[in-house]
Amino acid sequence: MANWTDHGEVFRVPRDLSVNNQAYAPGAAVKNGKVYLYVPDGGSKIGAAYADRPEGPFEGGKSLITGNAGNNTNVPWLFDPMGFVDDDGQGYIYFGGGPSDGNPGPGQNLRGAKLNADMMSVQYPATTISDTRCSFEAAYVHKRGSTYYFSYSTNFSCNTTGVQNGTIAYLTSDNPLTGFTYKGIMLGGTSGNNHASPVEYKDKWYLFYHDRKLKSKTNANERPAGITTDGEKRSVAVDLLEYESNGNIKQVTMTNAGPAQIKNLNPFDTVRATTMNLMYGINTDSVANGGMVVTQISNNDWVRLKGVDFGSGATRFTARAASNTSGSSIELRTGSNTGTLIGTCNIASTGGLTTFSNFECDITNATGVKDFLYLVFKGGSGAELFRLAWYKFDGGTAPSSSATPSSSSIVPSSSSLGPPQECAYQTSWCGGMEFVDVTHNTAEMPATTGECVYISDFYKIQPSLESTIAINGLENTCGDEWGDEPGGPCQFNTKPAAQDGGYYVFVKTGDVNGYIPEEATQPNGWQGVVAGSKLNCTSFATPSSSSSSEESTPILLPQTNVVRALRATPLYYNLKGEPLGNAKPSNPGIYIEKNGKQVKKIVVR
């Protein structure tokens, strides 16, 4: 709850939902490994789309709730939807809202309904949520134990006794649709409307909401229409959500600091440059492969991390950067942007702002937990000194208490000390996916020490202290064209086709079976393992035989080498969906790249 990663724009209409022209206050739900996003088109209708990851890409867009269907006649605004999946797997959607002069007015304008198993269609009629006193918008449901909590935003001008203006109120029930009773205020007013989302994380509850504290900080427009005199602007906030012994919610106090940091950050893991606690001057943007990098870096700009645990000490810093000028640098400072200098990493020209290279430097006095770590950018007066994709520290012993990586990244051990190493891996959000595109590559990546532990649908890397191999930037890793996004997607929903080429490993919970397309010309094989088994990465043993069957009996290997994930041959299309073949387009423009079922837009400049 202290260091946040910017993943960039994850959804846009009409690109991702052609039936919508607007995307007011969407809500999401997760079921069976898929993310479902419910998006209002102003207050007129609600659309839906789904993805394999929260950051997209989203597909399957369609209209979900329109007009007066299913008890929606008296709902002035069909918006602020949210999805909820109960313990039994049943999905629900909640929506609605309207002003005080709506028909029939506050108290009757919020709805809930069951979703069908596909999470993309509604079981009508919808149910009117009871006892929503002075209700206005922002319907949200969460469940704690056996109690359902329904929260919403009250109107700005309430005439209902005991209800405050512009707050987040809540109800409780033992049923997700009926029997709700008004309980009180969850969050006080914020000088305007609000929208709150209670979330449970690591056995604690948190309330995400927006306050309105940007008036003196920016002239940014809050609405697409360009209203600039609308008072304070919205900013996202989070605070701890606590409960009384009887289950009632303690009213949340809005703070600027937010909740305490849950775990310290481990700098020995690869850190995306767009991960930060605070920043000054810089911007972030996506690059051609869809990854996010820090951009618009000027002299004396900086980014800050909070609670960084260097353990027994770091001695080396590596940054992945691109620049078209020389003479820039990254100063590493603790405490403040003018605090103790622990190292300076010089950034030379790489030939352009899209050509990334690794830059290294020695550091000193980096031990234990530092309250704040600053990356201070130095250079001339150019408009953009360089761009930064990721960085990491090496040397010493990583702390065992550091934060674990997010579930949507490569899953290195928290004790990872050297540069990133890979055995066959599949990211945890690929649960249920069948293929990981991997190949032995002993020429580029000699065998090294360490071991891989197979855990369900992915490998967890545990390199040893003696590791010396360097994988500069992970170039050519699957799903990552130029290596600046750590890892990258490498799963296939369907069997790789002949044109994909390469070698593949068929991954299921509990075992790994070798799979070699008939076009394969080199022997290969994989050790069959069960969850928790370890694969020794010390040396490579050539398999005694190979197989071309689709799902072969595992070829047992006493040892296997360090392997490197490589992308299969992608296919390209123009924005009209017309195929362009498997050669990356050279003409400037925007294209669609499809790799298995991974689809993304690319920009050729």
TrEMBL record:
Chain ranges of the CBM6 domain: 269-394
GO BP annotation list: xylan catabolic process
Gene3D superfamilies membership: Galactose-binding domain-like, Glycosyl hydrolase domain, family 43
CDD domains tied to this protein: CBM6_xylanase-like
SMART domains linked to this entry: CBD_IV
Site positions per UniProt: Important for catalytic activity, responsible for pKa modulation of the active site Glu and correct orientation of both the proton donor and substrate: D80
UniProt keywords, alphabetically: Carbohydrate metabolism, Glycosidase, Hydrolase, Polysaccharide degradation, Signal, Xylan degradation
EC number of this enzyme: 3.2.1.8
Residues making up the signal peptide according to the UniProt record: none
SUPFAM superfamilies cross-referenced by the UniProt entry: Arabinanase/levansucrase/invertase (SSF75005), Galactose-binding domain-like (SSF49785)
EC category: hydrolase
Keyword Aminoacyl-tRNA synthetase belongs to the record: no
Sample GO molecular function, one term: carbohydrate binding
Similarity comment: Belongs to the glycosyl hydrolase 43 family.
Listed name of the protein: Endo-1,4-beta-xylanase A
